[in-house]
Amino acid sequence: MDDGIRSEQEEIARSQAPGEALSWEDLVRMRYTWAAAMETLRMVPPVFSMMRKSVADVEYGGYLIPEGWQVIHAANMTQWDPAIFPEPGRFDPARFENPSGCRPSPSCRSAAARASAPGTSSPGWRRWWPCTTS
């Protein structure tokens, strides 16, 4: 077990009475545990790929994606892209500890894709990002 997770869990356990269930406040205090879970999902996405249907004609990277075409998103391609996640092969929960420096959550990709489908004016992933404190 990662030392950061262990120390965080031990600190929370010390604040509990024997047999006492965790409260929502205890879960909120597990920031490093959450960051480690997000990093695990980034490195090994639970879903290999997703299909979406273009709701409007969209030009992307010089290519036209016509309305109605199916578009595939391979999660591991973005999660392992060094331009998005430096040193993608290194397990680094710290990349998810600072909400202002965070990228969209690996577990919220499908919600983000729905919210920012081509041809929509939705704010996209910003609505779904779980790391924000507000």
Q: Report helical residue fraction.
A: 25-40%
* Structural class computed from helices and strand pairing: alpha+beta
SSE pattern? HHHEEEEHH
Number of strands: 4
Count of the domains: 1
What best-fitting shape do the alpha-carbon axes yield?
Answer: elongated
State the distance separating the first and last CA atoms: 30 Å
How would a crystallographer describe the biggest sheet?
Answer: 2 strands, antiparallel
Question: SSE layout and pairings?
Answer:
Elements: H1 3-14, H2 24-28, H3 31-43, E1 49-53, E2 58-60, E3 63-65, E4 70-74, H4 75-79, H5 109-115
Antiparallel strand pairs: 1-4, 2-3
Q: Can you tag this structure with a few keywords?
A:
4 strands, disordered C terminus, two-stranded antiparallel ribbon, 5 helices, 134 residues, alpha+beta, two-stranded antiparallel sheet
Give a quick precis of the structure.
By secondary structure, the protein is α+β, with helices and mostly antiparallel strands. It has helices at residues 3-14, 24-28, 31-43, 75-79, 109-115, and strands spanning 49-53, 58-60, 63-65, 70-74. A two-stranded antiparallel sheet has the order 1-4. A two-stranded antiparallel sheet has the order 2-3.
